[in-house]
Amino acid sequence: MRQILHQFAAACTRPLRRREEQAAVVLWQAEESSLKATFLELARAAGKPKWLNWAECEWTGAMRLSRERDSGLLTALVGLVVRFEPIPGGEMEGVEAASMPRDTTALFHYRKGRWGTGGRALFNMPPDEAVTRLANQFEPVN
Fold first, then answer.
1. Tens of pLDDT, residue by residue, the chain (142 residues)
2. Per-residue DSSP letters for the chain?
3. Segments making up each domain of the chain, as ranges
């Protein structure tokens, strides 16, 4: 009985979710440039990874729309390649691998009809890999 109720609830909310997804994609297209700029500003200010500064960033590929399994929150996963520079006098200075380009996934969230970001990045993981490796956390949206 519980499973039947769950399936019924999912069927009832599916059209609402689909409309939300469509609205999110349209808004993403309109605000993509400013969202990416905000992400970079916040990510650079976060000081992660430790002892490294964000030197260069290149956005790669299209946005992958997913839904957080726990909250149902729409999440955009967007790829970028980041090259870091060691902070002078820091622990990473002189480490050759520190300045190697890194595949990274930037996270953006759609809540109450608006996109936002906290500057959270998944390092060494492009979006497709993030969806696969974090399948318990993110559900791809078709």
1. 666 655 655 555 677 889 999 999 999 999 999 999 999 999 999 988 888 999 999 999 889 999 999 999 999 999 999 999 999 998 888 888 888 999 999 999 999 999 999 999 999 999 999 999 999 999 999 7
2. -HHHHHHHHHHHHHHHHHHHHHHHHHHHHHHHHHHHHHHHHHHHHHT-STTEEEEEEEEEEEEEEEEETTT--EEEEEEEEEEEEEPTTSTTTT-GGGGS-EEEEEEEEEETTEEE----EEET--HHHHHHHTTTTEEE--
3. 17-140
